[in-house]
Amino acid sequence: MKFIVFTLFFVIGYLTSVIPTFAQSPQAWTGRCVGTGTNTDIPTIQGVECLFYNILQFIVFFAGLIFLFMFISGGFKYLTSGGDEKAVAAAGSTLTSAIIGLIGIIASWLILSFIQKFTGINVTKLIIPG
Predict the structure, then answer these.
(1) Quick one: pLDDT at residue 53?
(2) How remote is the C-alpha of 115 from its chain's centroid?
(3) What's the pLDDT at 41?
(4) Under a CB-based contact definition with an 8 Å cutoff, are residues 73 and 4 in contact?
(5) In this predicted structure, what is the pLDDT of residue 86?
(6) CB of 22 closer than 8 Å to CB of 29
(7) From CA 43, how far away is CA 51, in angstroms rounded?
(8) Contact 66, 94 (CB under 8 A)
(9) Closest C-alpha to 50, from 34, 36, 29, 30
């Protein structure tokens, strides 16, 4: 278990350290949350849109990471159970929970997509008028 935790922290640390930061970069900013024109550096309530978008992106990534960790952990428990019925049941429970979580994430996305197709309203995008 210590090896799995160490590997997980190593992978997370590696992924977060190789992502480039643009705080002092001379590159031009482009993308969803960058304004155009004059006075685009003034914060407004529309900044909540970008904050919500960024938090949602992190939650989806973190949910996928948790699924992967639980699936690998359950598989490892199953392989090392040695035929013990309690250990096999615990491993099966971990694998079942991981798969139910993944199905829940996919189902929530499908429900939102259905609402969007049915009503024509984009419910996956927060837009603050102004």
Answers:
(1) 78
(2) 22
(3) 65
(4) yes
(5) 92
(6) yes
(7) 12
(8) no
(9) 34
